[in-house]
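User: Structure please.
Assistant: Input sequence and predicted structure:
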Amino acid sequence: MLHKIAIQILAFIIAITLGIFAIGALLTAPAPTAVGTLSADFPVESVQIPAPNESTVHGWLVHGQPGGGVVLLAHSMRSNRLEMLSRARFLRDQGYSALFIDLQAHGETAGEKITFGLRESENIETSIAFLRKTFPTERIGAIGVSLGAAAIVLAKHDLKLNAVILESLHPTIEEAVDNRLKLHFGNYGSVLLPLMLSQLSFYLDASTDALSPITRINNLNAPLLIISGTDDAHTTQLETERLYAAARAPKELWIVPGARHFNMHAYAGREYEQRISAFLSQYLRQNVD
């Protein structure tokens, strides 16, 4: 009887372990999608930005007014550039040029696996270099959401941006994974955290520190606006406040009442546009001293 119970326990442990391995592979699996075309009322230029050591970055470029500034838009996990379309429309109406891209392993940009900002940061660097060449006299800003925000912060080189907006960004990969485990399994989900983190490190061949924005955010040498929601269970308000505290000035923090881990532009609407416009115009307009 005891032998039979021991075999059952062993089989259960093996099943759980194999399940965690499968989840690790699933979390990092690419999310390619066909983006399609836009309606004629919002003309964009399709761009393919090559880089020697990474996949060609696919995106759309929209031209604003000369001297208005240009903004790079980076989407969230398992999404694509279409997520940033409403922001691109709003920015174009404000006179900004905008480039919205598919990060690697998303949309139409190739990639073997999602890396939680690590390899995606190379797409950010490539796109910023493209914007500098295309708009040599313009000031450049960036808006990143979740994965896109992590990719901006984890860039290995100084992006030399004039303004950065980070939305729904986790401070550490440990907290990001733990919060999601709790959402699916309750407080008992934390028991799986060490195994999940080891799997991510294994699949991505990277330490957890290399995947944690709070370890790099002080290197982001640009005026910064951090946005998150009071009801975001994926990244809590306290975690956001800790990330904000680690960043260098000048910086601003906007905690959106009632917002969860979703599209802040869709949720906050006009107030989002007013705050984004005020922040970007302060740092990107050419007439700013």
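The chain has eight helices and ten strands.
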